[in-house]
Amino acid sequence: MDILWRDQTLFKNMDVFDLDHLPEEFLHREQQLTQLAMDLKPALRKSRPINALCIGPPSTGKTTAVKLIFKEIENVSEDVIPVYVNCQIINSRQQVFAKIFEKIFGYPPPSYGIPFLKLYYKILEKLSERVLVVALDDLNLVIEDKTINEILYALLKAHEEVEDVKIGVIAISTDLRIAERFDASVGSIFHSDEIYFPPYSRDEIRDILSSRAKFGFYPNVLSDEALEMIVDLTHQAGDLRLGIYLLKMAGLEAEKRASRRIEVRDVEVVCRDGRKVFLRKGILALNSAERALLKIVYSTSEELTTGELFKRFRKVISIGYTKFYEMLLKLENLRLIDTKFEGGRGRTRIILKRYDPKIVLEALRDF
Length: 367
Hints:
The protein is α/β, with parallel strands linked by helices. It has 15 helices and eight strands. The protein folds into three domains: about 170 residues, P-loop containing nucleotide triphosphate hydrolases (Rossmann fold); about 80 residues, Helicase, Ruva Protein, domain 3; about 80 residues, Arc Repressor Mutant, subunit A, CATH 1.10.10.
């Protein structure tokens, strides 16, 4: 019989489909993982590690690579303190060092507040004989260049404040030009090994999603046709997280109809909602001005050049072109829009919509 009884499930381990789950098999990133490990290897000898800059489009394995390396470090050494910082949430110098303080001391700094310099020197004085490695994930989503430079400068210059302090920095960015936001004082000392994470090919996406299915579902639960459809949708979206989400939701949909197999019909049911979920996550990372810019893009039926979009946006918010361009780049890095160049010399840049405008405008109304 193909009926799934009430106490039965298709999932061997549903946690495998959580977006923050560290995969049992980390496929197609061996080179990047090895490069990152070599950069951090000096820390295991109590020496200052090589700084790293992990760059690439969203959902290409940057965060996973760093978290896997940090997990391995914590398993083999007590002399290295790895601290992961999500800059979408923790985005000021004070917050970053409060996170570091909590990791080192095992408890957060006083809730009533503590002057930055006092917090800073408490941390540095605790680092004798130990090496601190700080990963700043989504550093490009910190809005102000000044804040980025304050964070990096405080970390990179710490050894000049307290003797023998050893700190390494891993910057993670979806903006390939993040280094252009560093001022002269940071650019002169942030000598980093650049590690590029390219988009996954369709075959690589299939391998990764098949691996997740192998560890997450019982054998023969996922039909080949359903898998291929999820692979196609994921490749089109350019976001591996969508595929992982669709696997989980299609499994739940198949269970809902008491089926022992996940079929194409299950993927079709959850596909539209899946796109909405990931669209909302992108919009959550925007401030009010950036959401206003996104609304103009999706409220316009014709194609816009960057120049035309800037003119329309200036009528809503008075802003310079440099700041406008940074906001536009953020929308592109979050996969909310695409851009393309047309023409020869003096090429024009065209704004392209990645989503159905109705879905985007509906999502924006919730903010």
